[in-house]
Amino acid sequence: MMSRKMGNPDLPYSALESSLSLLPLSDRRTLFDLITLHKILNGNVNAPELNDSIVINNPVYRTRNSIPFYPSFARSNYIQNSPMIRFQRTANILSSEINVFTITINQIKNHFLSKLEPSTPLH
């Protein structure tokens, strides 16, 4: 619909994203997952049941595997993609780049915005 409003209905989605300086949808979802998890961990969201569903990994021995969260086991893909499990899984995947315990929301946003390439003009 946006490509039609811009005057070129056959414009590919990736070109539309770059012309509007948008992150790809997968990166936007990851960004908002991390921001939401950060807000829950720092008490910006008043929901004790959400805090209770987060399991922080506290290893007894120092190992190379240093994932910060231990999401609950999911028996189906539906449960695997539930928000709380997805938030923790995303934070584990990006734990080498982003520490959700010490970083600010603006730093999380800047990390993802640095992935944007300078937009090129459309012809």
TrEMBL record:
Quote the protein name from its UniProt record: Uncharacterized protein
Species of provenance: Cacopsylla melanoneura
